[in-house]
Amino acid sequence: MSNREAHPTETVSVSDAPRGPVTELIEGRDVPISKTNLVNRTLPHRDRRMIGAWCFVDTFGPDAVIALPGMRVPPHPHVGLQTVSWLVDGAVDHRDSLGTHQLVRPGQLNLMTAGRGISHSEESPVDRPPWLHGAQLWIALPDDARGVEPSFQHVAELPQVQLDGVRATVLVGELAGVVSPATVYSPVVGAELEVTSSGLLPLDPQYEYGVLALRGAAVVADEPLSPGRLLYLGTDRESLPVSTRDGARLLLLGGVPFEEPIVMWWNFVARTHAEIVEARQTWMDGLDGGAGPLGGTRFGQVAGYDGPPLPAPPLPNAELRPRGRHP
Q1: CA–CA separation, 133 vs 263, rounded Å?
Q2: Which residues form the signal peptide (predicted)?
Q3: pTM over 0.85
């Protein structure tokens, strides 16, 4: 998914937040990503920019899409990150410049590694279910992996573990001894929690964690949580109590605090202003009258999408410069 803000602000993060358990509620904000699509964005936020290597968290829906276009995100570029696509309801078609064409459905994972550069599109298929509801997340690549060759991985069956009244599906990383087959480059975990009563999740005290509500209301670490909000939990926790009265779907995100400074602007995760400028210029140089990205081997071309690619927004007048992870 693309960041479609008309004037995206830079996000530069360094791991300077104090360690220890906390409960910090983050209110999401509504961001339009097209004429018909609105997402709720909880990361990056003015009060917290990352959880481990997780640097971008959007949720969308539930939206009735049977009589509407549904999701329609034209070809756009990425560098320096991995995208994680996860659905609660509906279906989304992914196309990328590697030639991938993959439909993702609820319970399945689409994981795209941008590395040095890739472009992709996402849209609801013509023959689509009536509802669309899900999440799009980004993982920042560490410095030694951000130049890797781009790749795409679809995992149709993910491992699950039952923890009393919580069934966890492990998208990436490890939880309660269960390991996802998805390839990641940092110590991270992402899991969907289907909560029916109450349970206790084992955690790694070296990780920092956050929990996002997808559907229903829950109580997490004695804090009420509902859709549109993310609860940051800090580090040094060995377990996490979760409960619900009427059922809830949650996302657990965690990882070792990301020690490297990053500059995040539009769809790029970099380290310097110059890298952002170069990536943007390469993408724009490849746009040929709306016919499609022709940017050579860096971003390639997405075949099969009916429409022009997204132009990059203008850069801010000031140089993109570092500021702390925890303002």
Answers
A1: 29
A2: none
A3: yes
